[in-house]
Every structure is written in C-alpha cells, then in structure tokens.
C-alpha cells in the first residue's frame, strides 16, 4: 500500500469516523445494532424532565438527578465511549426514582404514626387584604367596563338620533321584517339567507344563498332623496338593509312559451326564433329595488332556471317520434304536424345587455315585417303550476302513510301490495308523465280546441246558412280536455226538430257522440270533423222534413238514409224520403246528397197528362201517379228549406 | 285478473322433469304462444312456538305475477285465514321469529317459463323442494273473465287440448265451492298451497 499510489474511489461515508490514524486511515465506528440504537435513544430520554417541571429544583439537586443530566450533556459531546453501559442512565434514573418513592413512603409511614411527626395544614398564603387597594382596583375595573358600555350607548344614541332626525329606516326593524318572510341564519359575522325552494320540496342543486348587510348611511340618504324626489310611494321605500344576491340570480328571468308554424329547416327556425329574446330594459331596472322585490326577483330567477333545467333534461331523455331539440336557452318540441312549441328561458342579469339589445333590434325589424307571434300566457302559467305541483307532491305525502314504510310512493302504490296488484298494474303505476309531456299535451289540446272552434265557426257563419248551428263550449274544462255541444236546428222550427251532438276535444283526437248514441273517433285532421258536421246537417234536414210533414198531416211513405241508387258520394250516402199528401193525390220526394244538396220532386196522381192510348185504355190508370218533376227550391218563397217545404206542402194540400 | 286453474301433470316413468317441460313448451309454442319471461311461486311455512298453545302453521307465499304482494295463510283448525300484505311482511316475519319458526327444509317453489297465447296465460312450473324435484304444475289463466263458472268449460277444453285427452280434468278442490264467486289472486295462491302441501307429503321423485 505504501509502494504505490492508489486512487481510491469510494462511496460516501455512511458510518461515523471514530478516529483517523496518522497514515490517513480512517477507523469507522461499526453501525449500531438494533439494541444499541434502542439504548442510545433510551439514553437521550430525559426521565426527570417532566418531573422537574413539577417538583421544582429542590429534588433535582438531590443526588444523582442533577449529576446525571450533567453526565448526559457530557455524553452528548463525547460520543458513546464515555457511557460504561448503555442502560446506565436509565438505571440511575430508576434508582433515584426508587429512592424518592422510598423516602416518600417512609415519610408517610412516620406521619401516619403521629408520634414523631405531625402533618399540619399550611395556611394558604394570606391575601393582601388591604381594603382600600381592593376598592380602588374594583373601581378601576368597573370604570373601564362602564366606559366601554357608555361609548357603545353613545354611538347607538348618536346613530339613533341621527336616524330619527333624518327619518331614516331602522336596520333591526327591517331585519325583523326580512326574517318574517325569508330564511336567515347567522354565520360568524355575516347574516346569510336562503331563497331556494328547498324547503318547499325542490330538488334543484343550485343554491340560493344571499347575504344581508347594513346599508351605508350615504346610500340610505341617497335613496331617501330619490324617493322624496319621486313624490313618495312611487320609488322604492328606503331601507337600511342591503341584500346581496349571487350574480347568477341577479336580474329578471322568465319562461316564454311560443307556438309557431314549423320552419322549413332547423337553422332558420333557430334564427327566426329571436322572438324569444329578452327585452333589454326592464321596468324598474335602473332604480335600486327594495330588498323584498329584489329577493322575489332572485327567487323567480331560480325557479325559472329550475323549470328550464328540468324541461331540458326531459327533452333530452324523452324519445319522441320527432325528437325534441334543446339549443342554448330554447327547447323545441313538435306539438302537432306543422306546429312547434318553443320554450325559452330569458334571463337578463344586466351583464349580457349588449347582446340582447342587438337581438331585440334585429327582432324588432323582422317583427315589423312578419308580425311578432304572441307568446302563450296560459301555457307559461301552467308550466309554473306544474313545477309547483311537483314541489308540493315532494313534500306532501298522502295520508295515511305507515310509520315504518317508505315515504314517497303514491297512494295507489302503497295499496298495490295488499290489493295484490299484478305486474301490469304495477308497470302502469311506475309510468310518470314528465312536465314536458304534460305541457305538450296541453299545447296539443289548445290547438285542437282552437281548430275545432274555427271549423265550427266557419261552417256556422260562412258556409251553411240554412240550418242554424249553435255550439256551446263548456266553460269549465280541464287543461287537456274540453267539450262542445252542437245543436243543429232551423229557424222557426227548432221545436219541431233539432239535432244535437257532443264533441269531446282531447289532446290529439276528437270524440263525437251523436244523438243516436253512435260514437265516432276522429284524428287531429279537422277535415274529418267538417265532414261529420256536414253529414249531420243533411241528416238533420231529412229528419226535419219528415217531422214537418207529420205536423202538416202528410204521410211518410218511405224513407232511407242510405240510398243505394245514384252516383257514389264522396262522403256519406245519399238519403231520401217519399211523402204523400193527406188526400193521397200528391207526392213529394226529397233526395239529399251531401255533395249536391237537396233536391225536391213532386208528382200528382190524377195525372194531368194522361191520355188514353191503345195500351192503357182505362181512365182509372190516371190515378197511378205520374212522373216526378223537380222543383227549383232556390226560386221558391220561404226563409229556409223547412219553411219552403211547409209552404210547398200547404200548397199541395189545398184542394184546388 | 282472470280465472286461473292449476293442474298437476304426472311425470311419466323414465322421463325427467326437464324433458316434460320442454315437450309441453313445444306444444304451446306450436299453438302460437309467445314466451314472456319466467315465473316463480314460492312457499315457506312457519310453525308457531309450542308455548303459544296449539301449534299453528303460517304459509308465506310469493307469486311473481303479483310482485309487490306477500300472501300469508294461517292454518287454524279447519279454517284458513289469509292476509295479503306488501313486501315488508317478509321483514315482519323475521321480527316474529321468536314465535314462529321457519321450517327451512320445507321451502317449496314452482318455477319455469311463462307463455302468453291470446287471452290465455300458461305457466309451466317444475316444483322443487330443497333442490329436489317434486313434480310439474301447469297454471292456465284466462284473463278476460272473473268467475270460474263462466269459463270452466273453456279452460277444461284448453287443458285437455294441451295435456292430451287422457288426463282427467277436475276443478281444483279450492275452486269447487267458489265456482260462482269472483276470482281473486288469493284463490290462485290457495290452489298452489293445496298442491304444495300434497307434494310435501310425497317422497322426492328422481333427480332431474
């Protein structure tokens, strides 16, 4: 090793160096074994330390305790060589503890004997009972407390007098009022309120937290001057409260429902539907609102958002034959072929004013040309009502519900078990109509009703003048079903004959119950209703003619409501009747074809054009009756068809 | 809910239960029926504790046709009292375990395919008790009718057509004196209980 120079590459030292010999060799300490390590750590524990804190320096001085700590300090400096035995310090400490305990037990046993030693209670250290000092001390403390209270009172008084002097509102009274109407709680130093519909049964995730603060005096004064300027009453009443609503709930929101003709394609539909844009300015927006109005508006925003979120979710989930579309803040659904329902959420929180302003401008321009379609108040209202009903049913469970059973299922579902409902009934119960479906049904019904009205009115007022058609709509109806009673009668003859029928207008179908008890179901195509009404009108005319004939003493020879003769009718069948005069010498034949109208023929029985021929020689054959001749009804006198027929019958009955 | 008749089908010698079920399924499908899932009727019996006086038996039955209901029939003397409750009744029986102990080894069930054919609903059930095959029960329901009298002829004819003319078809014991009353789901359960009790008494058939 001395001959050559080695370049040594070595790992960094892991072990402690014990000593370096003169030739540069390093003697390492062997790494500590587990037990050694434990002993080393045990040595470091200062057993007397906690004791010393309590017992005080007196014991520490006693014997080995203090020397031990000293030696411990030494060991720290000098390493481990100095300790003879690793557990030595522990042993010495235990020994000192033992000594102390022994001494204590000796003392106690001696004291117990009461012969050599008596333990006397040491009187507590005499309190310095100089009364004057105490009095002064207390006086000073009280004075300090009083000063704090007085300062507070002074401040309160000052603000109160200023408030009364300037007729300012009281914060606490306002807070009381707020507390009566809204849910508030105190969180550390702030007052926080909740305006969500959670307690009313809503399950919407968005929170409606608002903060209540005291308005600064300047702003109150400003408000007061404003309201005074407005002449009192018109402006918002000044309030010492200021409510801070989260930005997403600020402003005004509402749901618009619009029914419109379906656009050619989706793009134009979305472009043209700018009718749903919000107006850029809303009444009372500039002015600072009263907190009540502000909170109500915010609550309304929250409600509209929940409603729209729910509808949008349903629109995506429902698989309709024509899928519903959700684009931005609009939902499009097809109500009936060619008619679209647009539900939009308008939220104006003052931040996107610019965009909306543009939208409204363009809409105003286009609206000037086309004419802005009216949005549907009734459907909007029923949408709100539907969500309220959902909220209500979330919190109000039908009574009686079992104490142990699950809450929530409907009464029918509760009874399903005991009533042994089968799987079909249970499946039926599990179906629940979504809000969107319900609103679509209402819209469908609305259109069906309006179309039926239009059909009936056009028939009654424009197309058919002769029999009068009177339709009575039931004033009370459900949102998805209504009922109309139709009376067909002729003026002046309503006591003789009237035909009545009832039409139930549903969501997509019509049900017509005729006088004879026949029920006819019709689709949403209103042509079917038209055809039915026309058939009923002609049927009415035929029945009415027969009734008039009966009154006039004429005899009904034959009648058929479904004639097999003649050309095929596009709707219904031709009907006819044959009437004979009381003396039997005249006959009237009435034929009614819905496509042509009513034709009337007459014949008389001693035929005037009877001539004796070679074949028919006898005179009696003239009584057989001749050929029928058509009468031109339109040139006859009379107000209506029945009146004409009456005149005709009267004329033919006269003996001339 | 229509009228249901439960009929036992004898398993011929050297044939297994699955074979018979398959054979009957083929026959029904040939008639034009469609299979509509499976069905299960199970029955568990509880004995009252001897300390309560005379021992009574409570049968708890479930029928997959009425999935929300639990049928319980209490045998007391010669009179049977039934209670129809919802699913929580099972939990209630656990609470009553001090007074009514379950005879686990007698739990018996009938399950198999369910077919629909027009107004008829046919269920082919193989009855097992403790995994041992016991026999075959055929349930035929005619849904549009509610009194057994009115439909008995039709059901008999249908069953004879299905099972072969050799089988003698009698109205079930339970239905015999209720032929003119309105049929309810508990009547089906009573029929099952009758046949299950009969099966319990017999020794097990060969394993399928």
UniProtKB/TrEMBL annotation, chain A:
Residues 56-82, 354-374 are annotated as: Disordered. This is Mediator of RNA polymerase II transcription subunit 17. Keywords: Nucleus, Transcription, Transcription regulation. Belongs to the Mediator complex subunit 17 family. It comes from the Eukaryota. It comes from Plutella xylostella (Diamondback moth). The keyword Nucleus applies. The keyword RNA-binding does not apply. It is found in: Nucleus. Residues 59-77 have a biased composition (Basic and acidic residues).
TrEMBL record, chain B:
Belongs to the Mediator complex subunit 20 family. Component of the Mediator complex. GO terms for molecular function: transcription coactivator activity. It comes from Plutella xylostella (Diamondback moth). It holds the Pfam family Med20. This is Mediator of RNA polymerase II transcription subunit 20. It is found in: Nucleus. Keywords: Activator, Nucleus, Transcription, Transcription regulation. Component of the Mediator complex, a coactivator involved in the regulated transcription of nearly all RNA polymerase II-dependent genes. Mediator functions as a bridge to convey information from gene-specific regulatory proteins to the basal RNA polymerase II transcription machinery. Mediator is recruited to promoters by direct interactions with regulatory proteins and serves as a scaffold for the assembly of a functional preinitiation complex with RNA polymerase II and the general transcription factors. GO terms for biological process: regulation of transcription by RNA polymerase II. GO terms for cellular component: mediator complex.
């Amino acid at each position: 090793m001395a001959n050559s120079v080695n370049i040594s590459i070595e790992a960094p030292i892991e072990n402690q160096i014990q000593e370096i010999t003169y030739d540069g060799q390093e003697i390492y300490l062997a790494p500590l074994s587990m037990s050694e390590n434990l002993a080393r750590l045990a040595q470091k524990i200062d057993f007397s330390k906690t004791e010393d804190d309590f017992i005080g320096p007196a014991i520490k001085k006693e014997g080995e305790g203090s020397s031990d700590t000293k030696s411990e300090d030494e060991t720290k400096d000098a390493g481990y060589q100095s300790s003879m035995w690793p557990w030595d310090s522990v042993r010495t400490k235990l020994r000192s503890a033992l000594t102390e305990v022994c001494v204590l037990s000796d003392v106690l046993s001696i004291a117990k004997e009461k012969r050599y030693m008596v333990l006397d209670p040491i009187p507590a250290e005499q309190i310095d009972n100089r009364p004057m000092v105490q009095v002064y001390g207390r006086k000073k403390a009280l004075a300090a407390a009083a000063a704090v209270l007085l300062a507070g009172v002074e401040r309160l008084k000052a603000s109160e007098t200023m408030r009364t002097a300037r007729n300012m509102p009281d914060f606490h009274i306002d807070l009381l009022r707020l507390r009566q109407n809204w849910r508030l709680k105190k969180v550390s130093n702030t007052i926080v309120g909740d305006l969500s519909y959670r307690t009313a049964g809503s399950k919407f995730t968005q929170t409606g937290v608002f903060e209540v603060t005291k308005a600064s005096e300047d702003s109150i004064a400003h408000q007061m001057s404003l309201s005074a300027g407005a002449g009192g009453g018109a402006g918002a009443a000044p309030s010492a409260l200021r409510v801070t609503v989260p930005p997403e709930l600020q402003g005004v929101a509402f749901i618009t429902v619009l029914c419109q003709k379906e656009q050619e394609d989706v793009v134009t539909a979305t472009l043209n539907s700018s009718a749903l844009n919000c107006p850029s300015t809303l009444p009372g927006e500039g002015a600072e609102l009263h907190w009540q109005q502000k909170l109500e508006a915010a609550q309304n925003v929250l409600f509209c958002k929940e409603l729209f979120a729910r509808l949008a979710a349903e629109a995506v989930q429902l698989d309709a034959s024509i899928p519903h579309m959700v684009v931005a803040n609009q939902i499009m659904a097809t109500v009936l072929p060619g008619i679209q329902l647009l539900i939009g959420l308008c939220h104006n929180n003052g931040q996107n004013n610019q965009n909306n302003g543009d939208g409204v401008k363009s809409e105003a321009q286009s609206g000037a040309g086309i004419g802005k379609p009216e949005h549907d108040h009734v459907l909007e209202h029923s949408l709100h009502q539907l969500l309220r009903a959902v909220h209500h049913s979330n919190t109000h469970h039908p009574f009686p519900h079992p104490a142990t059973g699950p809450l929530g299922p409907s009464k029918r579902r509760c009874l399903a078990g005991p009533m042994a409902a089968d799987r079909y009934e249970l499946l039926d119960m599990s179906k629940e109509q979504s809000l969107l479906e319900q609103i679509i049904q209402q819209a469908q019904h609305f259109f069906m009703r309006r179309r039926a009205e239009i059909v009936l009115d056009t028939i009654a007022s424009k197309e058919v003048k002769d029999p009068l058609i009177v339709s009575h709509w039931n004033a009370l109806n459900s949102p998805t079903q209504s009922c109309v009673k139709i009376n067909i009668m002729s003026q002046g003859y309503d006591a003789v004959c009237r035909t009545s029928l009832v039409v139930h207008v549903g969501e997509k179908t019509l049900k017509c119950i005729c006088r004879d008890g026949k029920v006819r179901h019709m689709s949403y195509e209103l042509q079917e209703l038209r055809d039915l009404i026309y058939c009923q009108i002609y049927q009415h005319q035929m029945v009415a003619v027969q009734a008039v004939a009966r009154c006039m003493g004429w005899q009904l020879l034959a009648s058929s409501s479904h004639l097999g003769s003649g050309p095929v009718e596009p709707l219904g069948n031709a009907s006819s009747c044959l009437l004979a005069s009381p003396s039997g010498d005249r006959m009237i034949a009435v034929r009614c074809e819905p496509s042509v109208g009513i034709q009337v023929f007459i014949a008389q029985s001693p035929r005037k054009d009877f001539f004796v021929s070679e074949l028919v020689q006898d005179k009696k054959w003239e009584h057989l009756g001749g050929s029928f001749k058509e009468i031109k009804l339109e040139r006859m006198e009379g107000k209506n068809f029945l009146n004409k027929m009456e005149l005709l019958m009267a004329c033919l009955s006269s003996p001339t | 809910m229509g009228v249901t008749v439960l009929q036992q089908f004898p398993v011929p010698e050297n044939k297994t239960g699955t074979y018979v079920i398959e054979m009957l399924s083929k026959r029904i499908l040939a008639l034009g029926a469609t299979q509509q899932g499976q069905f299960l009727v199970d029955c568990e019996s509880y004995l009252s504790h001897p300390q309560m006086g005379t021992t009574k038996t409570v049968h708890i039955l479930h029928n997959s046709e009425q999935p929300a209901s639990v049928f319980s029939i209490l045998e007391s003397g010669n009179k049977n009292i039934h209670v129809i409750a919802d699913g929580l009744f099972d939990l209630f029986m656990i609470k009553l375990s001090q007074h009514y102990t379950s005879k686990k080894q007698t739990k018996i069930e009938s399950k198999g395919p369910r077919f629909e054919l027009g107004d008829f609903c046919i269920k082919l059930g193989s009855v097992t008790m403790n995994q041992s095959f016991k026999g075959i029960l055929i349930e035929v329901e005619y849904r549009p009718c509610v009194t057994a009298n009115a439909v008995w002829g039709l059901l008999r004819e249908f069953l004879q057509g299905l099972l072969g003319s050799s089988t003698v078809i009698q109205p079930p014991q339970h239905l015999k004196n209720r032929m003119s009353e309105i049929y309810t789901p508990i009547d089906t359960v009573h029929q099952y209980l009758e046949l299950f009790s009969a099966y319990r008494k017999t020794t097990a058939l060969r394993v399928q």
